[in-house]
């Protein structure tokens, strides 16, 4: 393995480990302090753990439930997403489960008893922890596997659909443990989902419309930086009555900022219109998760 590759893999591992510990700290601080139920399989694990403890008098470690629930998503990851991606995700699942049990019961982790603060800041911290894993080409497991699989197969952002699916967990939590906690958990999940959409943009798409006289050079930049194609249109500026080329391309949103800067370097006079793409139908190059 080359030094560059080793450095990259080490960076991935460090990001995953930090994300895992932060994820566990969030559960044992904000989440448990307010008895919230976060989204995904972590919420399911906490709900099942609470049911066993309250109704059956059985104490089940969080890690046991989290590991069991993630078996099927891990198989999906290996088959359809990527092997290294899934291996790093397993590291996240194992480490976060271990530290969640380890930190459980440590009183100083309870930063506040205000439920609304726990819901808002817990949701934000949850999204940051998940984002660290996603930046490392990994995930926090569970519904992340499903969201990424759906996003790559359909071209649609799946995080809002995951939020809708989490409502099933919240309904069960509301029936069993009171609707106030379930409603506060919705705030937690909404804060987490929206923060994730802002912080991590790989699975959202951006359309660039570039009016330029250097279309060939600009396409070379697009191809080199993103490996995406482009379509060139003939156009005439109505004000100046001068002919121009318009380059049309769609890229992942996390690529658009750097691409705009590079285009400005090639043609400082280029007119660039940046649009958020709701959905992509057809062939679109996707970077491999591994």
Topology readout:
Layout: H1 3-33, H2 40-56, H3 62-69, H4 71-81, H5 83-103, H6 115-135, H7 143-154, H8 159-177, H9 179-199, E1 205-212, H10 215-226, E2 231-236, E3 243-252, H11 253-266, E4 271-277
Antiparallel strand pairs: 1-3, 1-4, 2-3
Helix pairs in contact: 1-5, 1-6, 2-3, 2-8, 3-5, 4-5, 4-7, 6-9, 8-9, 10-11
Protein name: DUF2179 domain-containing protein
GO cellular component, one term: plasma membrane
Organism: Treponema saccharophilum DSM 2985
Overview of this protein structure:
- Its main location: membrane.
- It holds the Pfam family YitT_membrane.
- It is found in: Cell membrane.
- This protein has about 290 residues and is α+β, with helices and mostly antiparallel strands.
- It has 2 domains: about 5-200, no CATH class; about 205-275, Alpha-Beta Plaits, CATH 3.30.70.
- Helices cover about 65% and strands about 10% of the residues.
- The protein contains 11 helices and 4 strands; from the N terminus they run H-H-H-H-H-H-H-H-H-E-H-E-E-H-E.
- It has helices at about 5-35, 40-55, 60-70, 70-80, 85-105, 115-135, 145-155, 160-175, 180-200, 215-225, 255-265, and strands at about 205-210, 230-235, 245-250, 270-275.
- Strands 2-3-1-4 form a 4-stranded antiparallel β-sheet.
- Strand 2 and strand 3 form a beta hairpin.
- Helix 1 (about 5-35) packs antiparallel against helix 6, helix 2 (about 40-55) crosses helix 3 and helix 3 (about 60-70) packs antiparallel against helix 5.
- The longest helix has about 30 residues, at about 5-35.
- The chain is elongated.
- The two termini are about 15 Å apart.
- The model has no long low-confidence stretch (mean pLDDT about 85).
């Amino acid at each position: 393995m080359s030094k560059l590759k080793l450095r990259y893999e080490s960076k991935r591992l460090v990001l995953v480990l930090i994300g895992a510990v932060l994820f566990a700290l969030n559960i044992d601080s904000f989440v448990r302090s307010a008895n919230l139920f976060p989204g995904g399989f972590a919420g399911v694990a906490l709900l099942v753990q609470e049911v066993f403890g309250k109704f059956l008098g059985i104490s089940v470690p969080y890690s046991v439930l989290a590991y069991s629930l993630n078996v099927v998503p891990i198989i999906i990851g290996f088959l359809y997403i990527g092997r290294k991606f899934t291996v790093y995700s397993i590291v996240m699942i194992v480490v976060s489960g271990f530290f969640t049990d380890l930190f459980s019961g440590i009183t100083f982790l309870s930063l506040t008893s205000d439920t609304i603060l726990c819901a808002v800041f817990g949701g934000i911290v949850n999204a940051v922890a998940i984002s660290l894993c996603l930046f490392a080409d990994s995930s926090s497991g569970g519904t992340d596997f499903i969201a990424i699989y759906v996003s790559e197969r359909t071209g649609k952002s799946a995080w809002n659909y995951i939020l809708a699916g989490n409502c099933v967990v919240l309904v069960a939590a509301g029936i069993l443990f009171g609707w106030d906690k379930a409603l506060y958990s919705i705030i937690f999940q909404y804060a987490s989902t929206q923060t994730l959409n802002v912080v991590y943009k790989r699975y959202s798409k951006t359309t660039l419309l570039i009016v330029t006289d250097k279309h060939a050079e600009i396409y070379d930049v697009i191809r080199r930086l993103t490996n995406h194609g482009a379509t060139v249109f003939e156009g005439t500026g109505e004000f100046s009555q001068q002919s121009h080329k318009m380059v049309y391309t769609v890229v992942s949103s996390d690529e658009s900022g750097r691409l705009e800067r590079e285009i400005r370097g090639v043609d400082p006079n280029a007119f660039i219109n940046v649009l958020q793409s709701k959905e992509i139908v057809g062939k679109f190059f996707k970077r491999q998760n591994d």
